[in-house]
Amino acid sequence: MRYSIWALAISAGLAACAAPDTPGTHVWQTLSGEPPLVIAHRGANGELPEHTIEAYTLAIEQGADIIEPDLVLTSDGVFVVRHDRYLADSTDVADHPEFADRRRVEGGRDDWWVDDFTLAEIRTLRARQVRPGRPTEFDGLYLIPTFEEVLDLAAAHGVATEPEVKSPSQFIAAGLDPLPELVRILRLRGLDTADASIAVQCFEPDFLARLNGEIDTPLLMLVFQMQELEPDLDPLIPTVALEDMIAFADGVGPYKALLVDGEGNDTGFIARAHALGLPVHPWTFRDDDPVGDGADIETELRRIYDLGADAVFTDFPATAVRVRDAMATE
């Protein structure tokens, strides 16, 4: 097991809570015994368009310990930061008549696809809010950043990153293998070591296993409920078993329903992962997305923090920081 990003972040002070006036005696159940980390999921995208320098900067200002860029490749092999290969939801590509002929159907979706565009062309697009009910007054203002620009921002502010490589098998099928470019960037920046201030995430175990053979950077296996693929299965079975991922991963990022059932009860997932030495980074906590048992966001975060989550992915970093810091004084 590599020296993990989470231990590094704590030792470097990146995850330190604001020092309370009256220190509390809260006992954290994280692997390190330190307060959990707050990961800005796509930046502070509850307030600004996701995956923009502005959203990441706001998240850092709100106290996020880690920022999370999702990585996709342009046709000329440059990592830009978008959640999806398709562009219509998160950019103004539909408003660009010069790209009308790029629209095509893939996998049943009629859209524009990032790997049909060069970086120079992507630079002409602007970001948009993707979730209904969130502010749209910033739509059309912000550029689509490259991965390296996000790394520059993180380094300038002394925060860690947790990039997710999106759909590597789809890019490979299109003739764009993300692995060599990712390894090049990490090596160039000295982020290919076990104590680097970064962890790479992916939903595809084969990609992480390949990456594990190339670099020592900590790796995070993302999992969800296998039931989404095979409806007859138990809803608590993850897409990759914990016992299998320890061969190539250093932590696990589970969908939060794997940790707490529909009645708000602990499933034991965190305890099982911790027993294997795997930190747990569940996703995604949103102030505007109520959970099944009716818990509000503060109750939901407290529950997950109490169970020992080592970090949380959140669209609203300020809320996750506030709840964590309040607990620290109790």
Automatic annotation (TrEMBL):
GO terms for molecular function: glycerophosphodiester phosphodiesterase activity. It is an enzyme of class 3 (hydrolase). Residues 36-324 form the GP-PDE domain. GO terms for cellular component: periplasmic space. It comes from the Bacteria. Keywords: Glycerol metabolism, Hydrolase, Signal. PROSITE patterns: GP_PDE (PS51704), PROKAR_LIPOPROTEIN (PS51257). Its EC number is 3.1.4.46. It catalyses: a sn-glycero-3-phosphodiester + H2O = an alcohol + sn-glycerol 3-phosphate + H(+). Residues 1-18 form the signal peptide. One of its GO terms (biological process) is glycerol metabolic process. Transmembrane segments: none annotated. The keyword DNA-binding does not apply. It holds the Pfam family GDPD. Belongs to the glycerophosphoryl diester phosphodiesterase family. PANTHER family: GLYCEROPHOSPHODIESTER PHOSPHODIESTERASE GDPD5-RELATED (PTHR43620:SF7), GLYCEROPHOSPHORYL DIESTER PHOSPHODIESTERASE (PTHR43620). This is glycerophosphodiester phosphodiesterase.
